[in-house]
Write a structure and sequence with these properties.
Length: 129
């Protein structure tokens, strides 16, 4: 994604989430990944929710600019629950992505996160480009 398009893309994703019955809390990221802090619709499974957000946003992005003609999200995703007591901290984390990634790449940070929470993963599947 182009940096100059990120704000529009994040706003569009927020609209998709609202349309699905979710409540977007914070959406942000970098040109190579997106973080979405949201409540899920009560009647929708996580996999269906993610599939809908990816499909709708990818279709929209292809209409946004010719740069995105062949755009697609990677197949996988990570989803984590967040305690209400950590919502503000999580919002700040999402808002400060540029600062975080001056110190380490998304891949490095994601691996540290998975390891810190004892989540087993296989790099062959966790990081498909």
């Amino acid at each position: 994604m182009r940096e100059e398009d990120l704000g529009r893309i994040f706003a569009y994703i927020g609209g998709i989430i609202k349309g699905l019955g979710g409540m977007p809390i914070e959406i942000g990221g970098m040109t190579d990944h997106v973080h979405i802090l949201t409540s899920l619709p009560k009647t929708m499974a996580l996999t269906d929710f993610v599939r809908a957000v990816k499909a709708d946003s990818s279709k929209w992005m292809k209409q946004l600019a010719t740069t995105y003609a062949s755009f697609s999200w990677q197949e996988g995703y990570g989803a984590f629950s967040v305690s209400p007591s950590l919502l503000d901290k999580t919002v700040q984390y999402i808002r400060n992505q540029a600062d975080h990634h001056r110190k380490r790449t998304f891949r490095e940070e994601y691996k540290l996160f998975l390891e810190a929470y004892g989540i087993e993963y296989d790099e062959r599947y966790a990081f498909s480009d």
